[in-house]
Amino acid sequence: MSSHSVEKGSLPDRFRDLWNQLAPIGRDENTGGYLRYTWTEPELRLRDWFRDQAAQRSMPVTEDGNGNLFAWWGDPADGNAVLAGSHFDSVPHGGAYDGPLGIVSALLAVDELRRAGVAPTRPVGIVAFAEEEGARFGVPCLGSRLLTGALAPDRAAALVDQSGVSLAEALGDRPAGADPTLLGRVGAFVELHVEQGRALVDLDSPVAVASAIWPHGRWRFDFTGEANHAGTTRMADRRDPMLTYAFTVLAANKEARLRDAHATIGRVRVEPNATNAVPARVTGWLDARAAEPDTLAALVEALGTKAAERAHRDGTQLSVTEESVTPLVGFDAGLAGRLRDLLDVPVLPTGAGHDAGVLSAHVPTAMLFVRNPTGVSHSPAESATDEDCAAGVAALARVLTELCR
Ligand code: GLV
Ligand code: MN
Ligand code: MN
Ligand code: MN
């Protein structure tokens, strides 16, 4: 391996040295959160940083025509590659670790293997997937869905961001779509990720292995009424979509609680968005998740029915559009069991979506979680200690060593 500065010091120090290189990129100084939208300036800088890190490790970088980047130790054409990695993009004002931790850990794990003199008999790859959060174009895990064929390239090409820029324009081309050759060369995928809840704090463990991802999806609720004057329109004469929207937010919370599920309306658009006008239209995006697919379906169905009844009473109209759905993911039980035995750590399900969930329908896939002391994620409060991150790197290095021999 080429000699570079991350060689020195303890593993937590080496983690911090590498982490400090990308920590300032895309950070908003006011909130401390990150604005790393896919193919915008900060995310492009992270991609350049990735290429540079790969070059320092003599790992050639390939792109798959869907915006996903791969760095290779060994020739991927040999097949049965062991892949590790995650994503660089963030939600609006997201945390530092969600995504980049998996990529930085994979780079450091490769360093660990080389320090230990491991000579892999399988190619080892590091991946940075595009648009995992769906924060720019609305569809989460966009890069992995395109690669696996779960999303049609024509549908992806036409997605637009909030400024009207299409995905094809941002990528510079129509996405290539499913790549069975590349996918067929991957024998296993391991995504390390910061934990996004409090389970590892409660379990007093720095690392865990994932068992499953809850089924989840996004639905757009369009409420249409009639724009009118706030001062002169009698209350009885209004057709106010904000009322139907407000009812729906409360109903989503209630329906989720009834089922031990999760429902969130975290994004809203109001038109024309004037203080002194009854709105013409309100659009709210529902994010719903549950442990079981039937529970999720029942939740969305019940909410749609209740919101439609309320729209009738308010004299408004409602249309509901499914934007994306991810089925229940059960990670490869053999692989998860192997990792649990190797690392002696807890095994947990999660309600968060990941590229690993998309890959798992095609490739034996596993996830490692690193403890998050605040238990908060998709927020600047997300955190992880250098020691726990180093424990994650060490765990990933053990897993890669085991898999690539
Ligand atoms: C992605 O982080 C998601 O689970 O929404
Ligand atoms: Mn996320
Ligand atoms: Mn993530
Ligand atoms: Mn995610």
From TrEMBL:
Gene3D superfamilies: 3.30.70.360, Zn peptidases (3.40.630.10). The keyword Zinc does not apply. Keywords: Hydrolase. It holds the Pfam family Peptidase_M20. InterPro entries: Amidase_Cbmase, Bact_exopeptidase_dim_dom, Peptidase_M20. The keyword Hydrolase applies. Belongs to the peptidase M20 family. This is Allantoate amidohydrolase. It comes from Micromonospora sonneratiae.
